[in-house]
Amino acid sequence: MFNRSILYLVAVVGLVSVHGQVAVAQFPPTTSDYEYTPIEGFSQPFRSARVAASVTGIVDVRSVAEGSEVSKGDCLVKLDSSVHQKLIQISRTAMQARGELATAQAELAARQTRLQRIETLADRQHATPVELLQAREQVALAEANVLTVEEKQLQRKAEFNKLTAEADQYCIAAPFDGVIVQFLKEEGEYVGPVDPQVCELAQLNVLSVNFLVPRERRPEIQVGSQATVHFVDSNRRARGSIYFVSPFPDGETNTYTVKVRVDNDDRLLNAGSRCHLLDLNADPNAHAADQPQLTMQLK
């Protein structure tokens, strides 16, 4: 066996001396030389909320359908406001009433005229000082009565404005641009203080991708820096900006929470998708060609 191995080695050396070349197996750098471990996370709506009513009542109309895109301020659900509208009508009538004020102003005018007559008589010594004093007191009381009526009018106007503002609360509006995920109340259901939520709203034109970054990778992360996010389910990559990094790591997992904002105006990216945080401030396709290979080279 030993002699056979020696003969094989001699044959190889002879082959080199005759042809001057031999096939050599060349191993490129190992995977560790190109080591690239993506950080896993998941995407979610940038904002989501359970929209709640600030007043109690019965759901009258759902103004939009589930899955509809809405803008900030759009009415999503209308509560029955028939009783409130009656109160507004009563308040408007009271605010527009002018009879009480007209009576007070007429009484003041009469008291002032009487005072002028008594002052004229007093100049001619035909009115006593007591009569003059009483006339002046009656004018002061009439002026106070007019002021009281005017203040009541202001209070009635303020009450009307209050009821009008409260009427807007019966129309539950969207707090931000988004998509109706689902309704939590059907038409005819009661919305009370214990369970005031009527629907779920999510902002999908911007996504927040949350990652748990190991402690040793924390120096790579900076708020405001750019990052490439790979959406695994749709196999798409997108650039985003890091807008949040937790100030300290989680005690159990020894990881930092990092949030990346990704624009999604074209709706090609999905919330609830598994994601990878790729290189920071790098070409998202930089690692596509970094695959170790076994090559044969002739020398």
UniProtKB/TrEMBL annotation:
GO CC, any one term: efflux pump complex
Residues annotated as domain Multidrug resistance protein MdtA-like barrel-sandwich hybrid: 47-191
Family of this protein: Belongs to the membrane fusion protein (MFP) (TC 8.A.1) family.
Gene it is expressed from: czcB_3
Matching SUPFAM superfamilies: HlyD-like secretion proteins
Residue intervals passing through the bilayer: none
Swiss-Prot/TrEMBL keywords: Signal
Species per Swiss-Prot/TrEMBL record: Rosistilla oblonga
Protein's name according to its UniProt entry: Cobalt-zinc-cadmium resistance protein CzcB
GO molecular function: efflux transmembrane transporter activity
Signal sequence annotation: 1-25
Lineage: superkingdom: Bacteria
Family annotation (Pfam families): BSH_RND
